[in-house]
Amino acid sequence: MILVAQISDTHFDLGARNAERAERVMAFLADLRRRPDAILVTGDITDSGKSDQYAEARMALDADIPVYALPGNHDDRAAFRETLLGEPASTAPINHAHRVGNLTVALLDSSIPGEPGGRLTEQTYDWLRGVLAAAPADGPILLALHHPPAHLFSPVIDTISLADPEKFAEVVAADERIVGVLTGHAHSAAVTTFAGRPLLVAPSTASVLGGEWELELPDRVMDYAPDPALALHVIDENHRMTTHFRSVAMGGWISIPPN
């Protein structure tokens, strides 16, 4: 069994609230009886892409569990690379792949600098094809990006989701080793299918964005009351993925039912 934790949309902004919520989620993961093999952070690490926000994120997300992050529409590629990854600043897409046991995890940069919506560039598609070609023939593959490639019935997110999802779907459908696609961006836990595979959208640690049955645009967009939440993905020996969502109470763990 491989256990992959996913957190998303942390929006580090140098304020105490968002940092404390992300730190509480990281503490929850560290305290699990069976720790995750890896932690994925699927974008919008910071609120406005500032270097000092990435420095705050680097400290809060530090763990003895491997942590792999990708950018979202609120991030800045150059500052992300320089401060969070310790690499030379560059505006090229931030794509990287990692081996977690026999699982290949490919993190794709769907951000478009200066725009809220997403798109995968030809450079990213070429990179992904290379990752798929190099991955073990008998090993599962998990893809992660920020922007959902499917309609989520969100008045806000559906207008700024992944552009040209059909092209991405062709790649996903063509490789039976791909066990699922993970995204963030929606600030709401959601489950659907994409190209015949599970599409799991992680909740945000910072806030919740409602669906079209809840929102009254332009008001009541974000709900800041709920506790931070995360997703836990289990990939078993049959390469089947099972996902559990958890909210993390800011008050900690209570083992005795309240009166």
* Helix segment tally: 5
- Give me the count of strands: 15
Q: Mean pLDDT across all residues, rounded?
A: 95
* Share of residues in strands: 25-35%
**Structural category:** alpha/beta
Rg (C-alpha, Å): 17 Å
Task: Please specify the SSE layout and strand pairing.
Layout: E1 2-7, H1 16-30, E2 38-42, H2 51-60, E3 67-70, H3 77-85, E4 96-100, E5 103-107, E6 111-112, E7 115-118, H4 122-134, E8 141-144, H5 165-173, E9 178-183, E10 190-194, E11 197-201, E12 208-209, E13 222-223, E14 229-235, E15 241-247
Overview of the structural elements:
With 259 residues, the protein is α/β, with parallel strands linked by helices. Helix content is 22%, strand content 27%. The strands form four sheets. A six-stranded mixed beta sheet has the order 4-5-8-9-11-10. The protein is globular and about 55 Å long. The model has no long low-confidence stretch (mean pLDDT 95).
Question: Which key features would you list for this structure?
Answer:
five-stranded mixed β-sheet, six-stranded mixed β-sheet, 259 residues, alpha/beta
Question: Quick summary of this structure?
Answer:
The protein is α/β, with parallel strands linked by helices. The chain has five helices and 15 strands. The longest helix is centred in the N-terminal third of the chain and has 15 residues, at 16-30.
